[in-house]
Amino acid sequence: MLIVLSLLTFFIPPAGGQENTISPDTGVQDLYLFMGWKDLVELYTREETSDERLDGYVRLSPDGEDIELEGVRFRGSSSRELPKKSFSIRFNESQEFLFGSDDMNLKATYTDPTMMRERLSMDLFHVLGQPAPRTKYFDLYINGVYEGLYVHVERVDGDLLASNGLNPAGTLVADDFRGNFGLPGVDRLSVFGYPIEEQDDPEAFLAETMDSRGEPDWGAVRDLVAWVYRTPAGPEFEEGFVERFDEENFIDWLAIHYLIGDVDSFGDDYWLYLDTGDPDAEWKVIPWDKDLTFGSHTRRSATVNDYFGYESAIASGWDNDLVEKFLDTPGLRERLNLRMAFLMDGVFTEDYYAGQIDVHKEAIGERLNITPGEDAFVLHPQNHHGDLGYLAYHTEAVLDFVRLRYRFIERAITPGSGEPYTASVEIPAEPEGSTVSFTDPGGWVIATFEVSEVTEPGTITATVNGTPENPGIDRRWEFDAGDADVSGELTLYYRNDVESCCFPIENWFVSDAAVRDDRYSQWDLRIVWESESGNRTALATYVNPYSNKASADVSLQGTTRFEVVLPDR
Q: Which one of 240, 246, 404, 417 has the largest count of C-beta atoms within 10 Å of its C-beta?
């Protein structure tokens, strides 16, 4: 019981709201980068993997003071291949507008049509008092031309450690086996699970294959890697884990990753820190790179897409035995489950995210609708890959992800039984204004129902079955209300997914396009209601294809059926 209470009280936000949940810099700051044309052409035409820095200088306003640079280059790994480039800008001196750092990581976030995911994610760690990079919006101008809204993400280094009350001279390393895969001796994507003690010089091998800052204690890293490799999941692993790790930090790190669906995080997207000057110190984890979250991830080996998914498993990945053995140890997994339940219910609620999104929307304004012209986007196509003018739909998809992801996690914590695509909910006598979710045993939300009126309470069962032909979405939703009689807004969720690393590959739409193709558009979908007598009525329908849903006002009584159709089918 004491363990449970301590887990639930890692951090409880202050009463009266979430005053301190956003990074201090909520506005957008101008950044004017000037480069000679020869250097600029070289930057955009040379090999994208080049890390050689080129000359330039920066101003914070068109006529402001010149700020000298050590140099400019592109940053990122796969993101360098995208048409809107991310930048690493190094200054000769530390800069107050960069939280006192001399390094600037300007992330293009081209894969994110909200351009909020990175900031939303990092702020979650700050809310819980865990170390994480600070973030800040910038409008980037290159030689006087607007080239996009960017997110600066604070570099994980000694400055970040110091700002979080940690020893800036401590050991700071990152698992970079993923980036070194294929080098002699590197045959996996994570150092955790590697037989490090079989190396002739384990510490030199780690120094070669892991990223680091400062002067790490490679002996301490070796000992950690060796312990993970030789220790099986279970009581022995639990005991050793508690001895070696800051348990609250690690569980919060893991819980947030599962809440936001970051399936890209267990390879090279985190740092490990140890205050090696303190004999009683424990390892901490610091997050990195959060653009592929809230449902955004690869489909058909590309990250630039509008596919939606929330059903990524609560599992390990990238060969990371540290995370896998943690999850396979019942005592640790139970503490993680308790923490996720608490955070979903009492801290990172739907209202929390809605409030944060409103703050970011106000800061961003109309920037995401800027189109190319003489004064904008000469080097880049636009701010993000998606259709312009749909920010409200894109941000709604983030909120839909949270709602649906939480139902999926709840089912993972408390497994259900029964048939796939079948779910029942109890409608009480006075639930007006509440929303109930029809969640099947696998965690898939068949539908949600926002109750506006209850004539008769009762249990309603929903089932989804195939249709003889594809009218748009090739499924039929059937609701058996029994003695219940309720009215409200019904939202039907459909599958529309293709080849993917992390989500079920199942598509119910007549096309496998994420939103539309040359013939079919999900924007045209309409809900058709079929009564018990067989009468069919097309309903006024709201559609958001970015979250694969269609909504309409309905009454549920007796047996009712619904299809989601295209007008010409």
A: 404
- Which residues, other chains included, contact 232 with Cβ-Cβ below 8 Å and sequence gap of 6+? 325
Q: Which of 117-121, 299-303, 418-422, 557-561 has the lowest mean pLDDT?
A: 299-303
Q: What is the pairing mode between strands 28-34 and 135-142?
A: parallel
| Residues linked to residue 245 through DSSP beta bridges, in sequence order | 283
The domain ranges of the chain are: 23-157+363-395, 169-337, 415-565
Backbone angles phi and psi of 331, in degrees to 5: -65, -40
Are 109 and 290 within 8 A, CB to CB? no
Q: Determine the Cα angle at 513 with ends 512 and 516, to 5°.
A: 135
The token pair at 543 is 């559609």
Residue among 252, 449, 225, 425 at smallest CA distance from 322: 225
Q: What is the CATH number of domain 415-565?
A: 2.60.220
Q: What's the DSSP call for residue 231?
A: P
> If you average pLDDT over residues 434-461, what whole number do you get?
96
Q: How far is CA 134 from CA 59, 104, 112, 126, 539, in A?
A: 21, 12, 18, 8, 46
Three-class DSSP labels, 310-364: CCCCCCCCCCCHHHHHHHCCHHHHHHHHHHHHHHHHHCCCHHHHHHHHHHHHHHH
User: Helix, strand, or coil here: 27?
Assistant: coil
Alpha-carbon span 551 to 531, nearest angstrom: 17
Q: Give this prediction's pTM.
A: 0.94
DSSP alpha helices (H): ranges in 347-488? 350-364, 391-413
